Amino acid sequence: MKLREGLxxxxxxxxxxxxxxxxxxxxxxGAAGLVYWRVKTALDQQLNDDLTTYQRSLxxxxxxxxxxxxxxxxxxxxxxxxxxxxxxSSDALRHQPLLTxxxxxxxxxxxxxxxxxxxxxxxxxxxxRLQARRVTAAGEPRIVIAAVRRGxxxxxxxxxxxxxxxxxxxxxxxxxxxxxxxxxxxxxPVERYRxxxxxxxxxxxHTRLDVPADRHDEITRLGxxxxxxxxxxxxxxxxxxRFVADASHExxxxxxxxRAELDVALHRPxxxxxxxxxxxxxxxxxxxxxxxxxALLDLEELGSSQHLTRARVRLADLVEAAVVPHRRxxxxxxxxxxxxxxxxxxxxxxxxxxxxIGNLLDNAxxxxxxxxxxxxxxxxxxxxxxxxxxxPGFPPEFLPRAFxxxxxxxxxxxxxxxxxxxxxxxxxxxxxxxxxxARNTGHGGAVTxxxxx
Length: 453
Description:
The chain is 55% helix and 17% strand. The protein has helices at 2-9, 12-64, 101-108, 151-201, 218-267, 272-304, 315-332, 350-367, 421-431; strands at 76-81, 86-89, 113-117, 128-137, 140-149, 311-314, 337-340, 345-348, 372-379, 382-388, 435-440, 445-452. A hairpin with a 2-residue loop joins strand 9 (372-379) and strand 10 (382-388).
């Protein structure tokens, strides 16, 4: 656990180099082991063949009671009786027994014993490979031991080990260096992006990361993503600054009017009627503040909600509930309010859809002229609802910002309003996964909601 925590604290380049070094060490160890095993097997096979041939010639000489034949260079021989007494031995061995008592007993009972004398590492002299078998000569059992020296074989293996270790070390160093340079080169853009982000954190404005235009790898795509994120953050910050400025202005106006009314009322004695008029004026401004605050809170709730509470609702009932409060307004102004919706069931959040439709109707009645018409239709799982009027329509320069908060078409819309109605409609459409569009029809203005249902 401590090792893992320690590794996590290391820089990414260091961890990548360690991973490369560890992987290469395993690969090199496996390759060196395979090469060593193949060479050792070949040398042992050659040594065993020589030993077997020499053993066979010794066996034949003992059976024929002839002098032992010469063997390979450096070969040794020893002949024992069944009790382990040395009957014949090479001069180099003199009377040194080559077999242990256990091995002697095994050979007497018919087993063939083969083993090495001395070790490869650490280096020892007079290393041998011997083989012992029982042979019957003139009815008497004899133990024939043939031995060959392993000096050349051991020297070749030690040299091979040294060369493999040297080559593996060089390869590991080269691989680690290449891995380090590659990791540094790959992460250099990331470090450059980090420095750019640090300048942004320090308050720099309009800074963008320097992303190469002729590449399309993972790091480049990361740079484009970060730049896109910076664009959106800057746009969000600009919207926030504009929102704060607009909200401050919108709140300042009614508060200033209220303060003026109260100052006038307190400046000199007023009659009961004058005080009543002052209170009514203050009440109007208070209601305007309440409506503005509620609208801002609704927009904030829509923007921060994780999901809507969708439910099945009849479209006709939803629209009727939104239209009823506006019929009397239309009648008082002598205007026609027509509704044409199918009797279908849709899925949506009536809590937000109903006031959104009401805002569209209020906008058309407040700023438009002539008849107001609400139409809706469902096609391929989408609801398309439009509210049109017969007024002068939207000014062309106002259309791109029609759904911005506090946006007003002052040139043609003279009635008072907070400028949040269409912004609320747009927020409801986005929350439902749909869109809102404002346009001119040639006979007035039209706002359309397109929602999945």
